[in-house]
Protein 1
Amino acid sequence: MGRPGALTVDRGPPGVALRAARDDDVALVRSWRNDPDAVRFSTSRRPVSELDHGRWFSAALVDPRVRLWVAEERGIPVGQVRLNLDGDAGVFSIAVAPAARGRGVGQQMLRIALAEVERDHLVAIVTAVTHPDNSASMRAFERVGFRRRGRSADGFIVFELRLG
């Protein structure tokens, strides 16, 4: 399927754009992943080591089943969006930089990523799981069209969106 290219800002609200993650984003993405709020709301509920994250990140960059984008606002990184592909379905995950939270950046990132997914016909259905106390994440997914579909075995809220 190829790696995603830069997405233009006209696919989403002004000021936010997505670009394909690069090797030199590894530390930045890990810092967002290990932010205390991100850890609290993660499925593992623990920080990830530099070694483990580096291995995962390198593999994700070359895996044709993974799309990993870094969001930028006026050229400043403000978060990341990941889509794991599995046949006709995909699973979204997002992380917003602590300094960018509370401004709707997560929602903007999702809108742009969804436009790319639909344009390239990558999957027919996308899902996401969110910690039940992460109201900002739940709002972002709901505002772009995801619907609650229940809970996972470990108590996370499962969201789903059927495309096209």
Protein 2
Amino acid sequence: MSAVATLPNRTALLPDVATAARVLTSADILDGSTEVMITHRGEIYRLRQTKLGKLILTK
């Protein structure tokens, strides 16, 4: 008998909706572009998607 590892359902990894903040998809945030600027407490941050699909947030 072989042991097969199963990955948890990704939605099971999300926090309980009653206690969590909103969940947004990166597609909704980026809206077709590869980067967006975000203001937070008077500072500007850049959220960008790399060629490999990773997200990077820089100040």
